[in-house]
Specification:
14 strands; globular; four-stranded antiparallel sheet; mainly beta
Length: 171
């Protein structure tokens, strides 16, 4: 469930029934965009749009069906970005994709990330120039990397970070 809170009183004033296992939530106009891992069995992972005026929840398009989302979702200028880890038959990550969703038209653009990125785990977008920052968890045990990509998805630079860099902050 999504709780609607009156910030002045710090009280729950409404609840919206949403999807299972919500991961990230972003507000765009009068809608919320929610990523979910699903339940790993009957409910698939996905990105859902919640219309705040009606409380209705809508899954997003065939272009996003079957995508195994990682835990990141970021909004920049009406574009919603989410990462996908592509798994092999032994559940190892064999590739990573970045999805850019135009929240006004519903158009989806998919880009494969550079092969030097092992496990896309964190995501940030520079609102000034559109550069993307990808946290790479690598093997989940040793320090990972943060990679800076330009709008054309070319790696501009990489730097060693801590273990599992999943949360990135730009200032």
């Amino acid at each position: 469930r999504i709780s609607v809170i009156d910030a002045g009183k710090f009280e729950v004033v409404d609840e919206i029934t949403a999807v299972k296992n919500m991961q990230d939530i972003v507000a765009v106009d009068n809608n919320l965009w929610v990523s979910t891992f699903g339940d790993y069995w009957m409910t698939p992972s996905g990105v859902w749009e919640v219309d705040l005026s009606t409380g209705s929840t809508v899954p997003q398009g065939e272009g996003l069906a079957g995508v195994r989302y990682s835990r990141c979702l970021v909004q920049n200028d009406g574009t919603l970005y989410t990462l996908e880890n592509v798994y092999g038959p032994d559940y190892s990550v064999i590739g990573n994709n970045l999805y850019a969703i135009d929240t006004r038209t519903g158009n989806v653009k998919v880009s494969a990330l550079d092969s030097s990125i092992q496990v896309a785990y964190g995501l940030a977008v520079n609102p000034d120039n559109g550069d993307l920052y990808i946290g790479d968890a690598a093997d989940y045990l040793n320090p990972g990397n943060v990679h800076c990509l330009d709008k054309s998805m070319n790696v501009k630079w990489s730097a060693v970070a801590g273990v599992d860099p999943g949360h990135l902050l730009l200032w």
